[in-house]
Design goal:
With 486 residues, the chain is of the alpha/beta class. The chain has four domains: 38-164, N-utilizing Substance Protein B Homolog, Chain A; 172-219, no CATH class; 225-274; 290-302 and 355-485, Vaccinia Virus protein VP39 (Rossmann fold), CATH 3.40.50. The chain has 19 helices and 13 strands. The strands form two sheets. Strands 5, 6, 7, 8, 9, 10, 11, 12 and 13 form a nine-stranded mixed β-sheet that branches. A four-stranded antiparallel β-sheet has the order 2-3-1-4. Helix 15 links the parallel strand 5 and strand 6. Helix 5 (112-124) runs parallel beside helix 7.
């Protein structure tokens, strides 16, 4: 997507080209040079790429770590500096704005990431203040030159004059008179997004937003790694033997407390994978709805990158059913093929297809999953920069596509079949708004009470729908609606 928003302190975009390579010497003759102070330099390069060209940190950071042969403590530090800075970007921008004589919007996009990186080290880590400033200024000399490095040094010394709590007392609006603005600065979210999340939670917009605040705080915490044992190919016991612990809700999930999931044998063999627990549960709910008559043809309409398809293919194979997984992008369809590979009875088949122009006949499927493209507001823990990519005006741009996909899903289901509408967002126009709009124009479907098929999980029901929350369930904020074709 090219649409985006920034914090209230958005800088002007003046790209200066790609980052220069720093440092000399190689750990591996075939690898690019490892920069001096590799953790901070790599964090800076990711932050700059996010700022200037909307790069995705979760894709770019691992690639840079591999290219530069950065491992161990340096890799851990680079990860903390990158994600920590992105999560608290709005807060740091408010503080930096108070430390600069001119507006922060006038700061070049190559300088702003180094300022944020320095602010994060000073205000939110255990790095000694002098080391945080000196190391950041050293990075600044290498990437923006000596003149602007002096500017960075002066600003960061002003930042270091107060701790984070003292700064928030200065820059955050008063909570009693402006609760939304207060939480936006304290927890680093765009103001409009705080209001949208409060509406989804049912908080009083004129009140203290008492449940909204723990949700915003949860978005700034590092999420745990959750694994899925693919049915028929691995078990939770296998994952526990590898060091994981059984999950609370999904019978196929386990939590990995630390370490690289790729080190687990089951993950390397693609018998298990990384998958959020709520993503597993919304797929499982679809399989728990009873259907009269045949139950042999299942469809996943937006299958990439394949997490839910891998789980459904295993469950389908155990029931002598078959899953057709459709994905419009060929590269993502390849990931889906890997996810369903060697499922029970090879129950998964993958096709490259646009589900808004189906390659299948209407009424052909007993169960249909449509996990629609969305704003991603339910995964802000994992993709912290995504909170700055949209504005209130662009947040609803996907609604026509979402409505079209749900309508095509209902067309694909046979009478008596069931459809699961899923999105990784709690934003009301993307969730119940889409379902209600589609059903208002047709009389051949009825909403089921989705929580009845997840009856062992507390606090997920919102009317007939299910909404998971990071602060309640420790998962992404997945939404689920179940509909019966009549």
């Amino acid at each position: 997507m090219t649409d985006r928003s920034r914090s209230p302190y958005r800088p002007s975009r003046r790209p200066k080209g790609g980052g220069a390579q720093g440092g000399k010497g190689k750990k591996n003759p075939a690898a690019p040079p490892t920069p001096r102070d590799p953790a901070r330099r790599t964090a800076y390069d990711v932050l700059r790429a996010v700022e200037e060209r909307d790069a995705y940190a979760n894709l770019l950071l691992p690639a840079l770590l591999r290219e530069r042969n950065i491992t161990g403590r340096d890799a851990a530090l680079a990860t903390e500096l990158t994600y920590g800075t992105l999560r608290r970007q709005g807060t740091y921008d408010a503080i930096l704005d108070a430390c600069i004589d001119r507006s922060l919007t006038s700061v070049d996009t190559e300088v702003l990431p180094v300022l944020r990186l320095g602010a994060h080290q000073q205000l939110s880590t255990n790095i000694p203040p002098h080391a945080a400033v000196n190391s950041t200024v050293d990075i600044a000399r290498r990437v923006v030159g000596h003149h602007r490095a002096r500017f960075v040094n002066a600003v960061l010394r002003k930042v270091g004059a107060r701790d984070l709590e003292a700064w928030l007392a200065v820059v955050a609006p008063d909570r009693d008179t402006d609760p939304t603005g207060h939480l936006a600065v304290v927890h680093s979210h765009p103001r409009w997004m705080v209001s949208a999340l409060a509406a989804a939670l049912g908080d009083d917009p004129e009140g203290r937003l008492d449940e909204t605040e723990p949700l915003l705080a949860a978005h700034n915490e590092r999420p745990r790694v959750t694994l899925v044992a693919k049915p028929g190919r691995a078990s939770v016991a296998d994952l526990v033997e590898g060091g994981a612990t059984a999950a609370r809700y999904s019978p196929f999930a386990a939590y990995l407390p630390e370490g690289d999931p790729a080190l687990l044998r089951e993950v390397r063999q693609r018998r298990a994978a990384v998958q959020d627990e709520a993503s597993q549960l919304v797929a499982l709910a679809l399989t728990r709805v009873s259907v009269a008559g045949a139950d042999t043809r299942w469809l996943d309409m937006c299958a990439g990158p394949g997490g839910k398809a891998g789980l459904l293919a295993g469950l389908a194979g155990q029931r002598d059913a078959r899953l057709l997984a459709a994905e419009v992008q060929p590269a993502r369809a390849g990931l889906v093929a890997q996810a369903v590979h060697r499922s029970v009875r090879d129950a998964g088949r993958v096709v490259v297809a646009d589900s808004t122009r189906p390659a299948w006949r209407d009424g052909a499927f007993d169960r249909v999953l449509v996990d629609v493209p969305c704003t991603g507001m339910g995964a802000l823990r994992r993709r912290p920069e995504s909170r700055w990519r949209r504005t209130p005006e662009t947040a609803g741009e996907l609604a026509p596509l979402q409505r079209d996909l749900l309508a095509r899903a209902l067309d694909a289901a046979r009478p008596g079949g069931v459809v699961a509408y899923v999105t990784c967002s709690p934003h009301l126009p993307e969730t119940r708004g889409v379902v209600e709009d589609v059903l208002a124009g047709r009389s051949d479907a009825a909403v089921l009470r989705a929580a009845d098929f997840l009856d062992d999980i507390p606090d997920v029901a919102t009317g007939d729908y299910v909404q998971f929350w990071p602060h309640r369930h420790g998962t992404d904020a997945m939404f689920l609606a179940l509909l019966r074709k009549s």
